[in-house]
Design a protein that fits this description.
InterPro entries: ImpA_N (IPR010657), TssA-like (IPR017740). Pfam families: ImpA_N. It is a single chain. By secondary structure, this protein is mainly alpha-helical. The protein is built from 14 helices and 2 strands, in the order ααααααββαααααααα. It has a two-stranded antiparallel sheet. A hairpin with a 2-residue loop joins β1 and β2. The longest helix has 21 residues. The N and C termini lie far apart (62 Å). 23% of the residues are buried.
Length: 306
């Protein structure tokens, strides 16, 4: 924890979290160090060596900025990203501890700051953490079989059975348990935020627990436990006082999904549906009928056009 303590030392007595650096040259250098090309995509006619992120440099720059310039959740999230890529699952507790303690130490001063009661800018990097760290955990080495490192993703494909739990697996098992502790503490901090803004860490929590099962350090969830954890079902239909109230609920759902699943097209379709609900019928029909072939194909898939 000494490294975390050093990162959380106030930058100055008057400004413990420093200034926002989102548009500074130092932040641009950090962004550049993280950039890499997707090697699964075709290279095209002009082939060149793909860009690769320099995770050592990312960790160095992010640590330097956090201690000397600005305590920013985005920079801290990227620092944790670099740690996990460099050191695997064993770095996950450290990454989650940094975010949690920063929020606990500097609830008002931490960047992005809360303005006029709007928590969305502060919640966005945490929603990214939940999704992105879950992906990193799934792709990080979890255990070894005959000298070959096996990831959670490979284990889930069923080609590699879990080895008997051994002392060699203990450091990873302890890291997973510590990660759950910090994730629960991080979630507790966010529970004090407005419900519409509080990020969900469920996907990361489930990924960690699945790693524990693969490692043999936790029993598989039985059906009774799963039933207890399932959200309650709605026993009666939801009613709305007005058409406008129903559309407002639709927009709130779209806003929530944009924060928690920014990669999915669903929230943007919901936002579009809200807009259609406030479009005069002649304009809506004109849009449906006169759209290009791609748009008409979408309407047919949605059942709007025959």
């Amino acid at each position: 924890m000494e490294q975390i303590d050093a990162l959380l030392i106030p930058i100055s007595p008057d400004s413990p979290c420093g200034e926002s650096i989102r548009y500074s040259p130092e932040f641009d250098r950090l962004v550049s160090a993280r950039q890499e090309d997707d090697e699964s995509l075709p290279a095209g006619v002009w082939q060149s060596a793909p860009r690769r992120a320099d995770w050592e440099e990312v960790a160095r720059l992010a640590s330097h900025l956090t201690t000397t310039r600005s305590k920013d959740l985005v920079v801290m999230a990227w620092l944790g990203d670099a740690w996990i890529r460099l050191h695997g699952v064993s770095a996950l507790p450290r990454a989650l501890a940094l975010l949690t303690l920063a929020l606990e130490h500097y609830p008002g001063e931490l960047h992005p700051q809360i303005r006029d009661g709007d928590y969305d800018y502060r919640a966005a990097p945490l929603s990214w953490v939940a999704q992105h760290y879950a992906m990193l955990v799934a792709n990080a080495p979890l255990f070894a079989v005959n000298g070959e490192s096996i990831t959670l993703g490979q284990w889930q494909q069923g080609h590699h059975p879990s080895p008997p739990f051994s002392e060699a697996s203990r450091p990873v098992a302890e890291a997973l348990e510590a990660s759950l502790h910090w994730l629960q503490r991080l979630n507790a901090v966010c529970q004090h935020w407005p419900e519409a803004s509080a990020p969900s860490f469920r996907v990361l929590e489930q990924k960690i627990k699945t790693c524990q099962q693969a490692l043999g350090s936790a029993p598989p969830e039985n059906t009774q436990t799963a039933a207890v954890n399932e959200p309650p079902t709605i026993s009666s239909p939801v009613t709305f006082a007005s058409r406008e109230e129903a559309y407002q609920m639709l927009r709130q759902v779209a806003s929530y999904l944009q924060r928690t699943e920014p990669h999915s097209p669903v929230p943007y379709l919901l936002e579009r549906a809200w807009a259609w609900g406030h479009t005069p019928l002649p304009e809506l029909l004109q849009e449906l009928i006169s759209g290009d072939e791609s748009a008409r194909r979408l309407w047919r898939q949605l059942g709007v056009l025959p």
